[in-house]
Design brief:
The protein is an alpha+beta fold. Helix content is 58%, strand content 20%. The strands form three sheets. Strands 2, 3, 5 and 6 form a four-stranded antiparallel sheet that branches. Strands 7, 8, 9 and 10 form a four-stranded antiparallel sheet that branches.
Length: 295
Amino acid sequence: MSYVVMALLFILLILILSNVRVIPQSHAVIIERLGGYNSTWGVGIHVKVPFIDRMSPMISLKEKVLDFPPQPVITKDNVTMMIDTVVYFQITDPKLYMYGVEKPINALENLSATTLRNIIGELELDQTLTSRDVINTKMRSILDEATDPWGIKVNRVEVKNIIPPEAIKEAMEKQMRAERERREQILIAEGHKQSAILEAEGKKQAMILEAEAEKEAAINRAKGEAQSILEVQTATAKGLQLIKEAGADDKVIKLRSLEALEKVADGKATKIIVPSDIQNLAGLVTSVAEIGRSK
């Protein structure tokens, strides 16, 4: 009898141990009792009822990344291109994820493809190539709203690659090459323009400096001549003042004039200027003779 009890206890222990589960962090398990939803197990130790409770596969609550293959899409201007997207999502409600939709990952992939086609269908080729942020934002908003009943939260969506047709790629390369050549010609022309401007500015500056130098030289010459004339006039004035202070009369002055006339008429001058009062020359000579006798 004791062996039977021990066997039963051993079997019971095995049953209990086999139904003990430890749920790790960021994971969850759905428990179904008699085919219906019973509870959601989170992190920790749990024990299920043997033969009555059934455990679902463990569900990860970590953020997941789905890299979908390229999808053919048609733009508003009827250009077919291939676009692949990356979706970052997280399971927030294990119960809804378990019972909300059949094969949630496949549903999310198909929903992403149809949403992408709808968004690209409203954009032209140039807008598609330059509006990645707009596409990402619209897709995230639409997918996040659509996956709420599935217990999934879409955190972000990224357009990974946009592959246009070969003809479009060649046309774009030609356009880029033409744009680069145009910019190069503009830069060359700007360089020539700046060089010409600088050269003209240099010539202008040189002419201004030369004119300034000539102006300064002329001013200095004029100042020198004015100073020379002033000094001559000053000396003349001083001489007259000295003569006046010495008490010389008109006869002495006329005598000095005759001496000057004699020097002028020494045979070297080609012209002789005769004073206007030459008719008084005789009287002047007489006066000179008298002055000589008085001495």
